[in-house]
Amino acid sequence: MAESDASGGMIETIRQFSAESSPIDFVIILEHGDLFLMGLVQTVALVGLALVIGGALSIPLSLIRAYRHPVLNPIVWVYTYTFRGTPLLLQLYLIYYGLGQFEAVRESFLWPIMRDAWWCTLFAFVLNTCAYTTEILRGAIDATPWGEVEAAKAAGMSPATRVRRIILPSAFRRALPQYSNEVIFMLHGSVVASTVTVQDILGVGWTLNGKYYLAYEGFIAAAVLYALLVWGISRLFRYLERRYLSHLRPRDGSSGGGKRGPKAPSPQPAT
Amino acid sequence: MRFTRLTATIAAGAFALGLGMGAASAEDTLRIGVEGAYPPFSWTEADGTLKGFDIDIARALCEQMGRDCELVPQDWDGIIPALLAKKYDAIVASMSITEERKKRVNFTDKYYNTPAKFVAPADADFEATTEGLDGKVVGVQRGTIHQCYMEKAFPDVELALYATQEEVFLDLASGRIDAQISDSIQAKEGFLDKEEGEGFAFLGDDQFDLECHGEGAGIAVRKEDDDLRVAFNDAIKALRENGTYAEINDKYFEFDVYGAEPGS
């Protein structure tokens, strides 16, 4: 193959490379469209379930962290620190290969579930995303304006009602932008599922490459699918942020620079 | 519009990467891709040194050809693409000579040939038949002749695909899969004869399908490197004749893994 100066002869090199080796075989990708669809379903199901379960679990945990419960707070801190401090791949390996080494685990009632790669993966994903979401929410709760709490107290709300009606809803809103990052990171992190035999999007890509000894066709198809998913996720969060963080946007609706402009009469009752 | 541009960008990136890997190529040293995770044919010691039948054969071939060699460990996934990208010039990794692979690379004559077999728990209550394996999960290494064979001969059996053969045995030992199929010699030496393989045994007879299994393991080279292929063939023949092959063979196996002489 001829030597080429990195960028100048790019197109020429691509052409040459295509002629000498094989070009991208789009046909083979399309022929395995059903496989990729199954991979897509697998990825969406794993990440979606992990986010729902992990998200639900993170609410009480974040309250424990924010209110600094004397007994539980250190425990939750150790948990979130461990799972945020170690790579997801390592967590999955420890759960998948590590736990399977123990006779006790293999004989326990959990084995029928933990035997399955899919459940191991979901378990790892839930623990991982829950740790991150807990800390995101804790940060948002800590940042609650004191005035909101004061006002709730003055209105005679009990501590539990304050959490339910004032602190959490307001924290959820503040956490939205950060949480959208967590969702995207979780999606990208989910590729580790393919290392323990789960046929997620990347797993299907590996299978296609492995079966036909290809270098990148499977990866390109996978990359496109992940990019599409991320596009969908960012659209969803943009919508959510518009809806729930609208009170933070300039009133006049024009794009940018409106913060200091004259205020239109408030269309909303004060909350 | 957005898609096409995105796809094109990714494709261009992938090309650039592939070319970059292929750029630096020393003329004199012959670089050989090996797997290093397939005992007793190829494994990696704790200190990183490569050992095994494939490794010894590769070194002996180089000596026979009078070339300086460098062994390059490469995961099975991507072992052929890396050859095409010129990360190395030949693959000595127990790779069976099959029609599907011949579309991408050329092969030398075989340097050994051993049959494939199932392995399952010794007390398994099922047989290696379509009915017996119904509802069972069988592990195979991805992109191998064994995956090809399972998909062809047992299309309805659920497969678990692994990146390395070692992971297949790991999951067989922990009971996550019900059986696995691989090279019988590799399974015996790499698993059954070891502590981890206690309580496991071969299931059924040799499995063979010409289309999937091919004629044995050969050395893969790029299609344009035909001189190299011929040189390897001469060297394999020489090793067979001068007793070096037998010497290496006896280090690892109790019988000649070369199999039947070609044409016999």
UniProtKB/TrEMBL annotation, chain B:
Name of this chain's protein: ABC transporter substrate-binding protein
UniProt xrefs under NCBIfam families: 3A0103s03R
Signal sequence annotation: 1-26
Pfam families linked to this entry: SBP_bac_3 (PF00497)
Top-level taxonomy: Bacteria, Pseudomonadati, Pseudomonadota, Alphaproteobacteria, Rhodospirillales
Annotated compartments: Periplasm
Stored InterPro entries: Lys_Arg_Orn-bd (IPR005768), SBP_3_CS (IPR018313), Solute-binding_3/MltF_N (IPR001638)
Origin species: Marivibrio halodurans
Swiss-Prot/TrEMBL keywords: Periplasm, Signal, Transport
One GO location term (cellular component): outer membrane-bounded periplasmic space
Keyword Ribonucleoprotein annotated: no
Keyword match Transport: yes
PROSITE patterns (alphabetical): SBP_BACTERIAL_3
Domain Solute-binding protein family 3/N-terminal: 29-256
Domain of life from the UniProt record: Bacteria
UniProt similarity note: Belongs to the bacterial solute-binding protein 3 family.
